[in-house]
Design goal:
CATH architecture: 2-Layer Sandwich
Helix content: 10-25%
Number of helices: 2
Order of helices and strands: EEEEHEHEE
Mean pLDDT: 78
Number of domains: 1
CATH topology: Translation Initiation Factor IF3
Length: 108
């Protein structure tokens, strides 16, 4: 089972003004993208879901229309509140379909 995980590079953490009593650092964890578009195992979407945390993305299909073997699992995860389904245009009549992980906890 191959797993392509891509990490987005974030900006440097924000800091409060120096010399105050409230110096704090706000750190953000890198968000990951797990690409399962080439996977043919129907359970692969749920396996990828267990690896994610809030803010991570599962890329489950590329094409002209929302489809692919992981579409039903992605829709079920959305109905359970585990992901938000989004799409991004990558060319003329071609899109990436993604499931972005929400803060709701995954229960096996």
């Amino acid at each position: 089972m191959s797993n392509f995980v891509r990490t987005s590079e974030g900006d440097t953490p924000d800091q409060s003004p120096r010399g105050t009593d409230t110096d704090t650092k706000v750190s953000e964890q890198a968000q990951r993208v797990i690409d399962i578009t080439a996977e043919r195992d129907p359970n692969r979407f749920y396996e990828a879901l267990t690896l994610t945390r809030a803010g991570d993305t599962i890329l489950y299909h590329r094409g002209e229309f929302a489809g692919g073997m992981h579409k039903k699992n992605a829709m079920a995860a959305q109905e359970a509140g585990l992901v938000a389904l989004v799409q991004r245009r990558i060319g003329p009549e071609k899109f990436e379909y993604m499931a972005q992980r929400t803060k709701k906890r995954w229960k096996k």
